[in-house]
Amino acid sequence: MEYQYPMDYTWSTDEIVDVIKFFESVEKAYESRVSKEDFMKTYRRFKEIVPGKADEKNYTDEFQVSSGYSAYLVLKRAKEIEDGGWITLKK
After folding, report:
1. Which parts pass through the membrane (predicted)?
2. Total count of domains within the chain
3. Could you report the per-residue pLDDT of 31-67, keeping only the tens digit for each?
4. Three-class secondary structure of residue 50 per DSSP
5. Are 86 and 36 in contact (CB under 8 A)?
6. Rounded CA separation 69/10 (Å)
7. Which one, 2, 75, 79, 87, has the greatest CB density within 10 A?
8. What pLDDT digit, counting tens, does each position of 67-80 carry?
9. 34 part of a folded domain
């Protein structure tokens, strides 16, 4: 990994850790697999920290530019599969 996670330095330490967990779950979907349950848990927490759609898009787009991993596509796939399923995407 040779990129940085996008973040707002006004967030608390716990919020930064939780945002990083969300981006790590996006990485897992591409590099191996992540359970829908785990991904959605990190996404819901991310949305508590970044509630606005525009801000969400800015952070996830910044992450995609630096990493090549699309949070949008992982979320889209998560909505398509049944509960208890696994999310796997290839770059």
Report:
1. none
2. 1
3. 999 999 999 999 999 999 999 999 999 999 999 999 9
4. coil
5. yes
6. 25
7. 87
8. 999 999 999 999 99
9. yes
Whether 5 is in a domain gets the answer no
Structure tokens at 50: 């970044």
Give phi and psi for 9, each to the nearest 5.
Answer: -75, 5
Domain that holds residue 26: 13-87
Give the mean pLDDT of the chain.
95
In 1-91, DSSP assigns E strands to 34-35, 86-87
| Under 8 Å between Cβ of 20 and 45 | no
**pLDDT given for residue 2 in this prediction:** 79
What are residue 89's phi and psi, to 5 degrees? Answer: -130, 150
CA distance 69 to 63: 7
